[in-house]
Amino acid sequence: xxxxxxxxxxxxxxxxxxxxxxxxxxxxxxxxxxxxxxxxxxxxxxxxxxxxxxxxxxxxxxxxxxxxxxxxxxxxxxxxxxxxxxxxxxxxxxxxxxxxxxxxxxxxxxxxxxxxxxxxxxx
Length: 123
What we know:
The protein has 4 helices and 4 strands, in the order βαββαβαα. By secondary structure, the protein is α+β, with helices and mostly antiparallel strands. The chain is globular and about 40 Å long.
């Protein structure tokens, strides 16, 4: 089969401890790996305020996972996300060639405005 690049962002409930949050993320990463997916990048964006409340919670732990897999794996992965009560929301998207290039540049830090501001000399 052919493989595609995917990106999944999921929001975990804010009542988890850091250890529980990391264990949950590891569980999903291991599921992808055992099913033959190649993990490209995992980013923990931390505890963020959401635009609207979900289950009376206004914050959540945001996690981004970029991976390369066969399309048949996505359905199984999303079923596992739905079954876990720690996951409040998730979104999986297929990355086109432009999004793949953008993701590579973002991981290298090309879009980090804070780093650019520090590098500029004061005049």
